[in-house]
Each structure stands twice: as structure tokens, then as C-alpha cells.
Amino acid sequence: MNASPLATAARALAQVETERNLAEARRQTRKLEEQLRQSQKMEAVGVLAGGVAHDFNNLLTVIHGYTGMALRGIDPASRLHEQLTQVMRSAGRAGELTRQLLLFSRKWTPQLVVVDVNGIVTDMTRMLQRLIGEDIAVRTDLSSEPCVVSGDPGNLEQVLMNLAVNARDAMPAGGKLTIATTHTTLSAGDCPAVPGASPGAYVCLTVTDTGAGMDRETVQRIFEPFFTTKAEGKGTGLGLSVAYGIVQRHGGWIHVYGEPDKGATFRVYLPMAGAVAQSDEVKAPHTEDLQGNGETVLLVEDDTEIRAWCAVALRESGYNVHKASTAAEALAAFGRHEHEIALVISDIVMPDRSGLDLVRDLRAMNSRIRIVLSSGYPGDRSGWDRLRDGGFAFLEKPYTFAQLLKTTRDALQRGEGPGINRAAGSETTCHTTQEEQWAFPG
Fold first, then answer.
1. Looking at residues 116-133, what average pLDDT do you find?
2. Which end of the chain is more exposed for a tag (fewer CB within 10 A), N or C?
3. pLDDT at residue 109 in the model
4. CA distance 378 to 51
5. Alpha helices in 133-280 (DSSP H)
6. What residues pair up with 115 in beta bridges, in sequence order?
């Protein structure tokens, strides 16, 4: 008995629907596989970036160190002093680049300081012009008042660079890029109209281009990881998602507006800070008041050049120094000189054991020994999650001659104090959420 035409049609429609679903499933599977491959590729690049940053921070520490020592005896009005100061300034900028590498490899915790967004824009304008090309005019319209926020300067530079690169790609035939800053205050009534907003005073960084614009679907997906409108091989789809993540970690949000053929506008809202940002002008270090009084320091550092420089710097500054390149050598030296050693300065990442394991053993031998830990790239091996309320001063690479002496003197005079003191930039204490606090093995 032949099936009715209606039943035949129903089966045909069902077959078509099944094939459509299978095709969509295969498409989604291919998309997920591609995202996985891309993710694995970026993870591999991230590991490489982290390793490069580690070695680069070690080199910068040596450059900072010897340059700072050389500046001590030079007339501040001399040309040589000016040239060495420029070396210090450039080394500082290079340190910011390594922080961007570590941010990319997810091995960096933002270091929040009071910073003027206007200064970041001004410092980056020339570099951005070279980056995006001469066929795009870069214009700035900055607030006449300081736009101070609590932020990581390297992170915020990354946000601005990513937004500028995105704008460049939207203007292949040239155009105009405008970067503006303003102050804005949002009330509770204003927030419903601004997605992600909360009441308060903000600095608004606006990046506007005259490019191809975006349709509504693109606007809704623009911050998704791996989403890109570029041709295959022309982009990773990570630039804007990285910018979005940075802004979120700073307590802000990004709002985007665009229409096809009418350009796009990105507005970055960052909570306003209450103090004026300090100038980052490099000055000759004042180390006269940071001299030692014959105290003995055990220096544990696997990098040969850093170990050599630190030993010279400390000895010339009035300290006695015992050196070790591994945790095993450090334990042996401490066993021989325990009663004379007043302070241990130890790298965290070492070839044989973690510096935290070394500290545990040293504290078992002498529970009151003062400790300074140092690293530029702790990575997974450092075991940050094992360290909480240990009270150790932390000297962040790359550090300067003055920072080395100040951290050493502070640790000897005051002990370590509560929590981790990130001594390589200011005397502020590192704040963590409960989930991020560091547990030290008791």
C-alpha cells in the first residue's frame, strides 16, 4: 500500500530538517575545534611570552642596578647624568612592556597606582601614529583637568593600543582616530541607560573612528573571545576581549556604539581616584640614608649577573654578603653563618626548589629570620597560593639600586610587617580578595 502524498511530504521535510540539523552540528563542531586549536596556540605563545618576560626582567634589573649606582657620583647638571637618567627612563618603559607580555600570558597581577589617563594618552600618541599608519590622522581631545584613576599603567596602555588597532583595521582606506577624555558622574537614575554601569564618578576614555562601523549583531558580540570580522588569518579575535577583561579588573566597563558605514565609538569608564597622579620622572636616587651598618645578608639568586650586581651594591652600601645560587647552597650557607645573618634576600623561582620552600626551611631553623622575596615572573612554580599573611617584603623585578637598598633597610628596621609589601615601586600593600590570598605553609 503506497503512502499518502501527505506522509511522503512529511518524511521528506523531516529528512531535510535532520540534514539541516546535522549540517549545523558539524558547523558548530568545526567552530569549536578551531577555537580549541586557536586557544592552544595562544596558550603556547603565552608560555613563551612568560619565559621571555622572566629573562628580560632579569636583564632589566642589572641595567637598572648598575645605572643607579653610576648616577650616585655624577653631577646632576652634567650631560652624562642626563644620559644615564634617560637609560633609567627607557629601562622603566621596557619593564612596562614585559608586564604586557605577562598580562598576555596571564602571569601578571595588575599593580594599581594612581595614574593620570591624560598622561597615558599623551605618552602613547606618537607610538600609536606609527602603529596605525600615516593614512589615519590621530587627534586627541583631553580634559583640562587631571583624569586620575587607580590602575596599572601597562594594562591601561594595552587597552588603548588594542582599541586603536581595532580602529585601524576598520579604516583600511584611511580615516580619523579621535581619543578623548572627560569626567563624568553617574547617578542611580543614569545607570539603566548605560549597560554595566554603577553610580559614581568616572573618567571616560573615548576612542572614535571613521571606519566601516558595525551592525547590531557585531556590536553584541564584539567582546567575545575569538570573535572577529576580519578575514581568516588576519586576526585572533582576542584584542577587544583582553581590553574588556582589563577594564573589568579595574572596576570599570566598556560601552560600544556603531552603525554600518558610520564608524564606531568605544567608551571606557574607569572609577575616578581621589589623588593627583605622581610624576613618573626619573630622578637621581638618594641612597645616603639607606646605608647598612655592617649587617650580614644572605643573597639567594640563580641569575649570575643579578647575583653579582646585588652583592657589589650591598657591600658598597655597608653590608656583609654571603651568596648562594640555589636553595641547597643557601641552606648550607645559613647553617654555617646562622648567628650572623640578619636578613635573607631570595629569588622565588630557582632551579632546584621554590624560594617559598627555602623560606619554610629557614624559618624552621630560625623562626625570627627576616625575609625579602623577589621575582619578576613568579609563574606556577612559585606557589603564590601557599603564601598568606607571611609578612615578607616583596622586591619586584626589575628593581633599582635605590629600591634594593630601601627594601633591605626597611626589612631590617621594621621586620616584615603584615601581608606582602610590594616594595619595588611604593610602600603600598598588595590587596587581595579572599580567594586570592596567599597561604604560607605553617
1. 88
2. N
3. 56
4. 11
5. 153-169, 216-221, 239-249
6. 149
Three-class DSSP category at 347: strand
Would you report the helix, strand and coil content of the chain in percent, each value rounded to 5? 45, 20, 35
DSSP conformation class of 153? H
Average confidence (pLDDT) over 141-159: 90
Please name the residues in contact with 137: beta carbons below 8 A apart, sequence gap of 6 or more.
Answer: 175, 176, 177
Please state, in angstroms and as integers, the Cα–Cα distance from residue 230 to each residue in 63, 177, 220, 265, 305, following that order.
Answer: 41, 19, 16, 18, 45
Q: Which residue has the cell 653563618?
A: 337
CA triple 319-320-326, angle to 5 deg: 115
Q: What 3-state DSSP class applies to 171?
A: coil
Domain ranges of the chain: 21-94, 109-271, 288-436
**Three cell numbers, residue 218:** 557585531
State CA 63 to chain mean position distance.
Answer: 21
pLDDT band at 405 (very low <50, low <70, confident <90, very high): very high
pTM: 0.55
* C-alpha cell recorded at residue 226: 575569538
CATH of 288-436, one of 3.90.330.10, 3.40.50.1000, 3.40.50.2300, 3.60.15.10: 3.40.50.2300
Contact 317, 290 (CB under 8 A): yes
**What is the CATH class of 109-271?**
alpha beta
Average pLDDT of the chain is 78
Sheet containing strand 253-258, edge to edge, reads 136-141, 175-186, 200-209, 264-271, 253-258
285, burial (CB in 10 Å: exposed 0-12, middle 13-18, buried 19+)? buried
* Distance between CA atoms of residues 93 and 390, nearest Å: 31
Q: What is the pLDDT of residue 158?
A: 84
* Cell numbers found for residue 134: 600615516
Please say whether the beta carbons of 200 and 185 come within 8 A.
yes
Residue owning grid cell 657591600 = 315
Among positive and negative, which fits the CA dihedral 405, 408, 413, 415?
Answer: positive
Take residue 381 and report the three cell numbers written for it.
Answer: 612554580
Is residue 42's pLDDT more than 50?
yes
